[in-house]
Amino acid sequence: MTSCSEQYIVDENGNKISVILPFSEYQKMQEDLHDLAVIAERKNEETIDINELKRRIGK
Q1: Keyword Coiled coil, does the record have it (predicted)?
Q2: Which of 2, 5, 33, 48 could lock onto 52 through a cystine, CB 3.0 to 4.6 A?
């Protein structure tokens, strides 16, 4: 992720409690989280070799 212009909301003691960031950065983070969730769901799936993949795609 690249540095962006986030802003923080702080409580009365100066502790950061929320962040404000550009919507485009939020969308990118959501997409990344989705991708990671898909990877986690599929981590135990059986793998296939490249020749099998080519065979399946060729059909």
Answers
A1: yes
A2: 48
